[in-house]
Target: LUD domain-containing protein
Amino acid sequence: MKTETYKLGIVEDKELRFAVIVSKFNGKFVYGRHKKRETWEIPGGHREVNENIALTAERELKEETGAVKFNIEPVCDYSVKREGQVQDYGRVYYANIEELGELPNFEIEEIKLFDYIPEKLTYPEIQPILLKYVMKYKIEKLISNFKLRRIYAQYFENLDEVKKEIERLIPENASIGIGHSATLQKMGITKTFIDKGNIVYDKELAKDKKECKEIKKKALIADWYITGSNAVSVDGRIINVDHSGNRVAAITFGPDKVIIVVGINKIVDTWQEGIKRVKNIACPLNAERAGFNPPCVTLKKCVDCSSIERVCNSLSIIEGQSLESRIKVFIVNESLGF
Model:
């Protein structure tokens, strides 16, 4: 089997037999499970006779997800050639679902939200290719919009590539602050720079609360600051929420240079979607990881509580910067962190 993608307009409209809709809801990808299968698939289906392909996409999205309110756009066309069969063509769309209703009683038994690609796919030779094309398209828009806001952004295939670039950028005599991040822990970035001889301020190295506070203060005036992010939006914004505020403070002002490493699962369409993601996905998971128990840990969603254990005390939205070279956003083609 061979799957190929094409820019819009290359394949004639009459050849398009399918519509596939890569869709997200509340910052996560939407997949459906067919009633006759145990695997997951991206919404999509056949074009009906004399049906406009755009209407096919809208109809299939509604039928296979229960989407009520959404924004949808065409991204590319594709073809699938199976051995001994004719070549089939289709169009790929991207949809940001704002409201889900009841799932219609058609072929799909249930829908589920994933960070990226589930392990059990119905069409493993087709849909990952289409999904990656869509995400490349979204990332190109994101990088372009960041540039308009004077924020540098770069795409990497994996964390190893990012780590090599960070090591290349930061000199051996520079001091480095580390913002607490599951992504950075996976990279092992603190140990890497300590072994190189850099002064590293990472609160995870603290022996007690007093030392932790001192380290966080020193990180605010380090030469470089490396951290993750709760969300970045395609419209060019960086969204973060903090418990004590040290990370959002350092991103905003203090260190001369800031590197933000973010997985593909953190990309949302708008800053409003970013806040939803932060409040309903990142905060409950981060609170649980830190041993706190605000209501969102149990409810798995934000209820705008006033609990002393809430971890979403400081909200930051970076919309641009005056010093163009200060903040760099490194986007990784992996699902990373919360």
Summary: The chain has nine helices and 17 strands. The chain has a mean pLDDT of 94. The CA atoms of residues 17 and 47 lie 5 Å apart.
